[in-house]
Amino acid sequence: MEKLPSLKNWNLSYNNVVIGQDNHAEFINSHYKKLLPIEGLNTLKFSITNAIVEYAAVQSNFHIILSNCNLNKSGRTNVLSYFHEKGFTSIIVYFNLSIELLKTRVEQTQRSKAIFRSASSLLEVLERQGNSGEIPPSEMGFVKKGAPRYDGYVHNTIKEALLL
Predict the structure, then answer these.
(1) Residue 92, SS3?
(2) Of the N and C termini of the chain, which has fewer Cβ atoms inside 10 Å?
(3) Which residues of 18-34 are buried (b: 16+ CB within 10 A; e: fewer)?
(4) Helix, strand, coil share (%) of the chain residues, nearest 5
(5) Do the Cβ atoms of 92 and 136 come closer than 8 Å?
(6) pLDDT tens digits, one per residue of 63-72
(7) CA–CA separation, 48 vs 73, rounded Å?
(8) Distance set, CA 84 to CA 7, 52, 137 (Å)
(9) How do 16-20 and 140-145 pair as beta strands?
(10) What are the domain boundaries of the chain?
């Protein structure tokens, strides 16, 4: 992959907001479980996420770090189109991890199961989503190979992408 264009002239204040649907799912499952659909799409979770994304995009000056590793190609395209229409530049960080490593991680995870509506484990979610291996289109791309070994890995990867 080619080196990314330099962002050194950008006014980067490192004011970021991380938006992830796992937080929204846990909140809904803890406080509004009765409102969840029994089957089909989790429209309540999507509505909450969309409201937070819209607020962050329109009402703040934050850089938005969107954690959406489970979107299919059309979903990623729609999300990126929305942000591009709002004047954002997209930087895709793709973690090129083997399916074996992902399975090992989800089997050993200590994460709360409060994020699940219909699945019983992260392994079930991983198997349902599959591994598309596609890198979505963006203004800039970034591929990381190998396994992150510490908590700051994602933060440092994003910082590295912004400072190229």
Answers:
(1) strand
(2) N
(3) ebebeebbbebbeeeee
(4) 45, 15, 40
(5) yes
(6) 888 876 556 6
(7) 21
(8) 17, 17, 12
(9) unpaired
(10) 16-163
